[in-house]
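call fold target=Peptidase M48 domain-containing protein
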Amino acid sequence: MAAIRIYQIIRDLIKDPQSLINYIESYLLSVIGIPYIEREINNDVTRLIVSNEHGNAELSINHEIRIKGHDKVKVLLNALVLRYLGTNGARKITVLLLRRGNRVYRVNDLPRMRSLPVGLIGLVILLIMIISIVITILRIMNVILSMHIIILMLLSPLIIPIIYSYILQLKIRWGNLRNSEIIKITLEYGEFDEQRFNEALRFLSRIENIKSLTEIRRFIMTLVNNPGTKPQAYNEEVISISSILDKLGVKKYGIYLINMDQCNAASIGLPGINYVILTSRLVSCLNSDELTAVIMHEVGHIVHGDSAKALFLISLSQLVNIALITYIIPLMSLPAIPILIGALFMELFMILLTMRFSEYSADKYAMKFIPGKDLAMALIKVTWKELHQELASKRSRVLSSHPSVSGRLIRIASIK
């Protein structure tokens, strides 16, 4: 039933069903080389029937989308539908610039990061598990911990993230978007126009030494007018994050852009420090409405105090573990290791469950300001590969801090 609902949501997001059919047919013929494809249009229903030695499948589109069939071909059609939504059926090259006053900076000049640097909660959870095991071993060895060390262990899940958040903000300060505008230049090529796309990439590699916005525009127009690198579409967009947030009434949170090849965003909301982090890849993938939806989702986390809630639960878990190991287990002569392992798994499950529900709450908060379709479209563009795996494998993720993509999409669609 969940898969049927997801396909209904996907159908609402597809503006041009004929374009989807053309894209899938071209992909199957040009990239995969499937020899037998039949196309049928009847009573406002468009069908694409695919058959080869690996199986057969049928994609039909009218007021809904249905994929029927067997084996690998059905999985492939499902993947191509999601790929079309996630990429708009095109290859894109995006040049991102930051403009502060009269000065222009390239996003590539910002410090490059390999991973989103806000996974501290996961590290703190791991640290607490390690500390609990160490305390257990010390207790078994009859080593009594001083009260000062116990207090330090209780406070560390609160102090370490706050210090880390301040240091991180200093590190990414050059990407502050509150007093900047993003100039986004997009060159769009066909999915199967690989040669022209690669030529454009090689041409743009020479942009490194160009500093002024006028020179960059002139350079890109040379590419646009060159028959060997000319894109199907060219667009320049100026995005003012400050204007967007002021219009929505969000004025007190910092917004930072980091140079990172990962389509993601994150937020930190702790006492005295609140900000949102956007990756350059995310800004490249989404249009301004979708980007606004993601920002408001992250602001929702801050408004609801989700970071602080998670750290409170972690500190509470630390207190419970220390109480178990130091007092309760010795007093009642209970087996230490099995009880501690059970407690750790129970605590971890409760923390992750809380974090999952916080994602739903942040989605609901964002939809107070933006249409649900923008949020759903942004979610699919960021996670379409993950959504495909969910629909194909139907595996549940017990130890995950985020709910399933399909679950979030269904909830977004149900909020009016």
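return ok
The chain has a mean pLDDT of 83. The first strand starts at residue 36 and ends at 42.
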